[in-house]
Amino acid sequence: MRTSKIFISFRFQLFGAIILASILPAFVRRNFDSDIFSSQLQINTLVGTVVAIVVGYFFHRRISVIPGVKADFYIIPIYAFSFYILVLVMFFARIDYTRATLISGFFITILWFQCIAVLSRRVREYSLAIVPGGDVEALVELKGVRWISLSDMPTSHRGWDGLVADLRADLSPQWIRFISETALAGTPVFHVKEIRESLTGMVEIEHLSENTLGSLNPNEAYRELKHTLDWVIAFSALIAFLPIFAVISLLIKMDSSGPVLFRQERRGYRGKTFKVFKFRTMIAKQSGAGDVPAEVADMENVRDQARTKDQDMRITRVGRILRRTRLDELPQVLNIMRGEMSWIGPRPEALVLSKWYEKELPFYSYRHIVFPGITGWAQINQGHVSAVEDVHEKLHYDFYYIKNFSFWLDLIITMKTAKIIFTGFGSR
User: Fold this and answer.
1) Where would I find the H helices in 256-309?
2) Sequence-ordered list of residues with C-beta below 8 angstroms from that of 287, at least 6 positions apart, any chain
3) Among residues 118, 132, 257, 285, which is most buried (max CB within 10 A)?
4) pLDDT tens digit string along 196-248?
5) Domain residue limits, the chain
6) Contact criterion met (CB below 8 Å) for 59 and 24
7) What pTM did the predictor assign?
């Protein structure tokens, strides 16, 4: 137990990285240059390496608490980003540094935290004790944690990493006293609802769930900042993607007849309708099925045409590649620039499907409280779905995103989306 706590210790991880990746290389180079610590060049490099490690460690710790995140997967991209930002700052500020020392510091940092991740998994299994009473029985079915069911009052608060209780249940005075003493002893105490959401990445939707500020509305300040950044990034991406747009358009025209772009009415922010742009991936005579008015008689056929099935025969050869790599979504940068979408958010559904889901599922319209996105929390966890029962499950993910609407969750979604582009997860 003591060994496992060392590996997860803030001081051990951070200061170990600083010593190995910045101070140790400097001492090694001292054998070849005795004046290394009096050299401004080396001091700049040492200080810069320390700053990059601290910034990267801060980001890594923040995103590692997001459910479903394998923290070691993000070690390389996060520290690569922090060192890249360091190099940019030094370049524009005209600060000299030693390239060899900085590069060696980067690779030592990666190696250090990868070793920490491997050793932590081998010597430690995260454990949570469960206080009996209330809605806690289903917790033991969740994976990724060693559950300890407390039948009798323990005499010690040691042996597990945290305590879980239904704080809204009618617990006995003895258990309430034990929970209070556990918190005072420095052991984390979690409410059953929060720990379930944290482990599954889903929010229960039998009732509308408030965010950490006690409000149904997401963080307004972050939403406005994100909306501005979305537009700036979309404008830059549109310029960068123009050659790719031209190549894809040519391939689509060569593969099948019909328009290059597919337009479909979808439900967006605050329930407003808009036309989403995508590269056409289906044969032209059926690709517009989603635009059929909802008032037509054969609604079942309309809904069937609007949904994409497994191994759908309507998908063209080029379209299958575009769907697998998500390149068919690129024209949606136009929707972002028009203020209709975001890069990250709940996926906008076809209007005819949205109307159907609103009749079938309670609270479905609540997902429109944020801008719809090209990618999102539900997409990276579940992939493409269309059946009502699957959409119901997707709502759990969408509501989790809305409740935990933040930069950190968006950062996780961005990195996982990059991984999905190369694996084709969830494509149809």
Assistant:
1) 284-287, 299-306
2) 258, 262, 280, 281, 314
3) 132
4) 887 888 877 665 555 554 556 777 888 889 999 999 999 999 999 899 999 99
5) 2-123, 127-200, 220-423
6) no
7) 0.70
